[in-house]
Design brief:
elongated, alpha+beta, disordered N terminus
């Protein structure tokens, strides 16, 4: 082997060593990156494990005490609202009494009860009385049965022609959500000018007050033609002492007690309130949320203090109720009248005129 061959072999070996060294450096760099990535993955896994552990731990630790929830107040203070029936106050329809139904409807507003405070009426009045059915019932079930009614008001009043006269109840009449009661307002005058009422414009007329979403006055009431309450007599001595398809004219004032939020009443609350309550409660199960440091009972107590419209449901519900009431009124106006009913009314008018 010549000296030149030896030098050539040494050069090749040096080049190979340099190449191996470069490969080792690349492997080390890749290894460091993999180790860093593995460490990051381990940190993420640790965080996930912590979050899962915290969630499972909180599911037990944050379970509220049922006995504590029962101490929450169930209803709000009294909110005052009123229904006004805008009908013509002409003297075309007056006599001794008017019967009709009121109902606390099942609507989107989460209220518990309404408390009727006053009835406002027109007419020459005199000695007045107000009766309500014993328990939830319609007036039609007891219209000629005195034992089915309770007297809740008596008083003597002067004529109320331009402005209605208030008949204020000494004890408010409670009507729970979903209940219906019959009301009978009576005057003992011996003429036919005691109380103003009106003729129901249509047999399918919608209730008055639906835009409030709490209390409604049902149409299709009944007039009474005798100065003695519940007696089936009239001044001319023949025929019935009652007239169907009549309706109350005046005003009803009442107060509303709304429900307060609790886990039991949650399904009855509007959608925005339910969503916000759910989000607030679930925040307590995340380690990164400050609410996780607050006991669940305190979170529930805070939600219990929020009114039903705290999260802005009232605007949408008000628009919804107004739209529904308007649509019902339009459908009623478009309903064709019964020609047989019109002919019967014409014959009655002709008979009385002659």
């Amino acid at each position: 082997v010549t000296q030149s061959d030896t030098m050539e072999t040494d050069g090749k070996m040096d080049g190979a060593h340099e190449h191996e060294h470069e490969l080792e450096l690349e492997i080390e760099e890749l290894g460091e990156e993999e180790v860093e990535q593995d460490d990051a993955d381990m940190v993420d896994e640790d965080e996930d494990d912590d979050e899962e552990y915290f969630f499972r731990y909180n599911r037990q630790r944050r379970a509220p005490d049922p006995a504590y929830i029962k101490t929450f107040p169930a209803t709000s203070g009294m909110y005052h609202e009123e229904i006004e029936i805008n009908t013509a106050c002409s003297k075309d329809h007056t006599f001794n009494g008017i019967m009709f139904d009121i109902e606390a409807i099942e609507g989107p507003k989460p209220f518990q009860s309404v408390y009727v405070e006053s009835f406002f009426v027109y007419g020459e009045l005199g000695k007045m009385a107000i009766y309500v059915t014993k328990g939830p019932a319609t007036y039609a079930e007891h219209y000629n049965n005195p034992s089915g009614w309770n007297k809740i008001y008596t008083g003597t009043h002067r004529e109320a022609e331009d402005e209605p006269c208030e008949l204020k109840l000494e004890n408010k009449l409670q009507v729970k959500r979903g209940e219906k009661y019959g009301i009978y307002i009576h005057s003992e005058r011996h003429d036919d000018n005691g109380i103003v009422y009106d003729k129901t414009a249509s047999r399918s007329k919608c209730a008055v007050g639906e835009e409030h979403g709490t209390l409604v006055v049902r149409p299709r009431g009944m007039a009474h033609l005798c100065h003695k309450a519940f007696v089936d007599e009239n001044p001319w001595g023949w025929g019935s002492g009652f007239r169907q398809d009549r309706e109350f004219v005046g005003r009803v004032t009442y107060g509303v007690r709304y429900m307060l939020w609790s886990p039991e009443t949650h399904p009855k609350f509007p959608i925005k309130f339910r969503e916000c309550a759910y989000n607030v409660l679930t925040c307590g199960y995340r380690i990164s949320s400050p609410i996780a440091e607050i006991p669940t009972e305190i979170v529930l107590y805070i939600l219990n203090f929020c009114n039903w419209d705290h999260f802005g449901d009232d605007k949408e519900i008000t628009e919804q109720l107004k739209r529904q009431a308007s649509e019902k009124s339009k459908r009623v106006e478009e309903t064709p009248r019964n020609p047989r009913y019109d002919a019967r009314q014409w014959l009655l008018r002709m008979a009385f005129n002659h």
